[in-house]
């Protein structure tokens, strides 16, 4: 049975290093992985084993889809970045009424 990875894993920006994050591992006691979203022409890189073994190989074989050729830590860091960017942009816009 495949266990679904948690979606709320912690992603922490690295102060002073834009687009670089520490992404929490799903394995208790494992140090966080370093994710650089801008590296590899914006495809991102990660220090996890899955990226190093599987995803890097896919890229060398020509895979250009950033979802397929990215580990879960890169995807989580992208989601974190996108969420923060949307909040930042929304704060700079005139207020709009939103139905809840």
Give the structure's gist in a few sentences:
The protein is of the alpha+beta class and 100 residues long.
Describe it.
The protein has one domain (11-91). Helix content is 33%, strand content 13%. The protein has helices spanning 49-60, 72-92; strands at residues 11-13, 20-23, 33-36, 45-46. Strands 1-2-3-4 form a four-stranded antiparallel sheet. A hairpin with an 8-residue loop joins strand 3 (33-36) and strand 4. The longest helix has 21 residues, at 72-92. The N and C termini lie far apart (38 Å).
Number of helices: 2
Roughly what percent helix?
Answer: 25-40%
Tell me, briefly, the overall form: globular
Radius of gyration: 16 Å
Task: Output the helix-strand order.
Answer: EEEEHH
Low-confidence stretches: 1-7
- Please give the domain count: 1
């Amino acid at each position: 049975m495949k266990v679904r990875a948690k979606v709320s894993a912690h992603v922490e920006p690295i102060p002073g290093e834009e687009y670089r994050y520490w992404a929490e591992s799903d394995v208790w006691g494992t140090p966080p992985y370093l994710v650089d979203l801008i590296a590899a022409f914006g495809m991102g890189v990660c220090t996890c084993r899955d990226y190093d073994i599987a995803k890097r190989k896919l890229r060398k074989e020509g895979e250009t889809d950033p979802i397929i050729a990215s580990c879960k830590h890169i995807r989580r860091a992208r989601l974190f970045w996108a969420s923060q960017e949307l909040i930042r942009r929304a704060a700079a816009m005139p207020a709009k009424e939103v139905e809840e």
